[in-house]
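Re: [help] complex structure
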Amino acid sequence: MHKVLNDRLAIFLFVFPGLAFFVLTFVAPIILSGYYSFTETLAPGTPVKMVGFSNFTEILFHDERFWLSLRNALLLGLGFVVIQHPICILFAIMLDRIGGKAEKWFRTIFFIPCVISVVVISRMWLSVLDPTFGIANKVLASIGLSDLQHAWLGDASTALGSLLSILIWSGFGWGLLFYYAGVKGIPADMYEAARLDGASGFKLHWRITVPLLSPVITVQITLAVITALKQMETVFLTTNGGPGDSTQFLAVYLYNQAFSASNYGYANAISILFILVCLIITFVLNKLTKNKNLDF
Amino acid sequence: MTKSKRTALWIFFLLVACVQLFPLVWLTDFSLVESSEFFSEKVLVWPDSIKWDNYINAWVDGNFLHYLWNSVFVSFVTIVLTVIVSISMAYAFTRMNWKWRPFFYAVILLGIMIPIHATLLPNFSIFKSLGLTNSYWGLILPYTSVSVPFSTFILTGFMRSIPVEIEESGVMDGASIYRIVFQLILPLTMPAVVTVAVTTFLNCWNEFIMAYTFISDERFKTLPFSVMNFAGQYSSDYGSQFAVMVLTSIPAIIIYAMFNEKITKGVMAGAVKG
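Output below.
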């Protein structure tokens, strides 16, 4: 047994393909990105001019859009943590309590938006929130709230909030599923013991379920913030950062810098900072929440 | 839980489900009517005669079958590659003894955290110089790379719960390590493999930005493109646009309906223990 599990060749053959994929799509591009980040290049394949750290100083000290993108990502992450996750936890507990066929049915239904393509979701919500034929405004009119009718994604004051709603809608199922799995993992005798102590209802769950879910919660919160930082497709396909940068995100910003504004070198410098931000935030959150599961 | 409480919860869930699924119902409803209906005051319409033309436009002019085939092919190859690569890595990470094991495990997990969007630009250059843009590999390679870290994470968690004795009996029978992994371990990890396969499928099926960046040739475009192309081509024909969106969503919903129990079980077995 021991000999088989020490087989060097087998270990190499098992790990090499995975690492090769990893190097091809993560390591090599990051190195290349690092190189381009010190240059002034219009597009891939055009002449390259070395400019040292000037892209980085420009971004960090003079580029308001970069900081705005970061702020938007953090606001979105805060929205996930404060609004989406408590709802997911609440629904996970209620699903577990309802039991029987209903438990299975509703669990299936609540997950459906998660299997819809981001392109469909984005275009669908563009239509839902459309100021001329969108269903959101029609519903408001039909319940007598015409005053609230609005170009939801076209107005700088509501664009980010609308985006948050779309993302909460489409991501609700995954969050619910992870918390539900966590709730199911809590042994029944924990509840028995608490009931004997006289706890019930809300108090029971606040004192027993939520603390026992804390390992799941810490992983989920880290993932929520990372998801907010990585946000791209929905923004790209709905507002593309506008109006007036109110929904600007790092990924959208760097994409447009590279392919629309022909600032390939500058965009790569944003990429490098983007990766650093993601890794630093993961590290800090892991330290803060003393999370062991995603520790590096 | 008392009966009345359960009924109240039932009604509450039903209401939430209606609100949640409403945009999808609206999408399907309006994919069956004339585009002029979009500007009526009604929230939902009952079509006097169903306008199948929208679906005919979507199917024929939207070139639906072509994009469908590309999506199926790319997803299938990606799933097979992801499962083989992840299961062998997960085995090396859980069972085999080697010095750099924790280091490489941590490196692979970093793949979950690194934003693929930050690697899009350099990958575009690399793929272009390797001749991978505008080919199936230009989608399959990055999709597999992106799926492997999460899949390895799920499979590693699951494999830890399998007793070692099973492999010991395999070794006694003189099976090679490769046979042990693919003939003994693979069937035992099936619940997690199904989870990995289904999540990989959903990711590939719905992926947009990499396909948008790496592919410009009609021949290799996948389903999300049909929605985009169509939106440009039929910009004022909302009914047909909605029909394309409904058609694109149906395969994913069917796959989900078939495997939804497995997804839940896999998440329960893998992700919670970590």
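Chain A has one domain: 63-289.
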